[in-house]
Amino acid sequence: MRRPPLGGRFFDLQYANLKVGAAVTQHKIRMRVAIVTISDSVSRGTSKDASGPGVRDRCAQLGWEVVSEQVLPDEPVEIRGRLVSIAEGGSADLILTTGGTGIGPRDSTPEATTQACQKLLPGISELMRDEGRKKTSRAALSRAVAGVRGRVLIVNLPGSPRGALESLDAVAELLPHALQVLGGARHD
Amino acid sequence: MRRPPLGGRFFDLQYANLKVGAAVTQHKIRMRVAIVTISDSVSRGTSKDASGPGVRDRCAQLGWEVVSEQVLPDEPVEIRGRLVSIAEGGSADLILTTGGTGIGPRDSTPEATTQACQKLLPGISELMRDEGRKKTSRAALSRAVAGVRGRVLIVNLPGSPRGALESLDAVAELLPHALQVLGGARHD
Amino acid sequence: MRRPPLGGRFFDLQYANLKVGAAVTQHKIRMRVAIVTISDSVSRGTSKDASGPGVRDRCAQLGWEVVSEQVLPDEPVEIRGRLVSIAEGGSADLILTTGGTGIGPRDSTPEATTQACQKLLPGISELMRDEGRKKTSRAALSRAVAGVRGRVLIVNLPGSPRGALESLDAVAELLPHALQVLGGARHD
């Protein structure tokens, strides 16, 4: 997948302080983000993607590079397959999904994501729900998960435009560090 | 299963504001609750059910309709079977269990509930523990889970009378909304 | 395994108030702790164990008796086997691991611990992360779990010296009570 040239839209870079061994070094972290909107109605074309574009704009504000935007129906096998294929494709460091994290009969994003991941990061989900509950008690109903496949981080965001951004904001500071660790540095 | 006539003991109805699409509409939500006390000693008749009646009274205060009260021993296969049978029987929207959520050798309610559910709602468990910890650090030892089978919500409460009510109070506001979503409206 | 004589280094005993039935009784709880440092580099001898000795000293301050200190590489099968063997050996009431709880490619302590346990205690993990996040947002990346095998409690601590002690402090008050319950008294 082609990436936008430096100096283009995604020219901002992310910096993080990271301890490697005893020394504190500073690394440029390039966050390449794939956004996947998961919604039956958006996929069918009967409703507008209300959350994906907001997530894309927030990523741009964070200085992250959005490398793809896709829409999928609430079909767990399809979702899982796409997440695996993006994660193994090498073009993204972070996959952000939006939608399908609720308790409705068709919501299956968390299950599909769990199957696509080799490790889960329950603290990310807890953090998103904790922060969300400061805004609305309904955040407790989100079943969003986060995890790792290879060196790629996968994070579910809710499907409501506001919920998606609030969840992303809750963990945005943490994700560059997580990706740095996944690249081989040790956190623990 | 017969339900009490309107105007009888359970005449109060629950209202919830719920976004459906762009419009905010108000729905009457009828909460039909099955209470299951899980305790070897209550089941054997060697101790009194200390938590079930308190849960029943709190449900009545909340305007929820208690359709059944049952007692089971701490036998995971039996618990799971009963939860599935109530959920599929169509007479209850919400199953509240009390007891068997601790770490003792016989406590098996969370495992049995997990097996009975098609989806788990970790945010409900986190909320009950978070709120519980404001009262006692021991709330962190509760392994209570919550989940969904079909359109029925299943929520574990601890077996101590106080813990059961505190856990129920922590999520009571959320449950009518969750059930509304399960009925087909979309939360996410 | 021999235990230090009373009056020696580990002479302090732990007391806990515990409700048994209706009466409040006070029990002496003897905490026998096995510490397992999990780190490839410490195991190879290429780096110093930075967290195990700190955990040992904190246990001594808490009046707990450290019965063994071991080092293992980040090998899940080996970790799981050792945890099971300690839990079934009868010489320890509590196993504290340190290290391997992060998201790096070799970190596998939580998975190995999950397999070694018969029951998980998600509230312990949540409590450690919640408390940790008051110090650093990176605590949310810890995947540490806690659980039970037989009557033995197994708790993962992070591998950073500060993180290990902060996590231990977050749950130290709770663990004697948990062990008392595991011994047969009912919490729930």
List the topology elements.
3 copies of one chain form a homotrimer.
Chain A (H helix, E strand, L loop, with lengths): L13 E7 L2 E7 L2 E7 L1 H5 L7 H10 L3 E8 L3 H14 L4 E5 L10 H8 L2 E2 L1 H12 L12 E4 L2 E6 L3 H11 L2 H9 L6
Parallel strand pairs in A: 3-4, 3-5, 5-8
Antiparallel strand pairs in A: 1-2, 6-7, 7-8
Helix pairs in contact in A: 2-6, 3-4, 5-6
Explain what the structure shows.
Three copies of one chain form a homotrimer. With 188 residues, chain A is an alpha/beta fold. Chain A has one domain (31-182): MoaB/Mog-like domain (Molybdenum Cofactor Biosythetic Enzyme, Chain A, 3-Layer(aba) Sandwich), CATH 3.40.980. Chain A has seven helices and eight strands. The first copy, chain A, has helices at 40-44, 52-61, 76-89, 109-116, 122-133, 161-171, 174-182; strands spanning 14-20, 23-29, 32-38, 65-72, 94-98, 119-120, 146-149, 152-157. In chain A, the strands form two sheets. A six-stranded mixed sheet of chain A has the order 4-3-5-8-7-6, with helices on both faces. Chain A has a two-stranded antiparallel sheet with strand order 1-2. Residues 1-27 of chain A have low confidence and may be disordered.
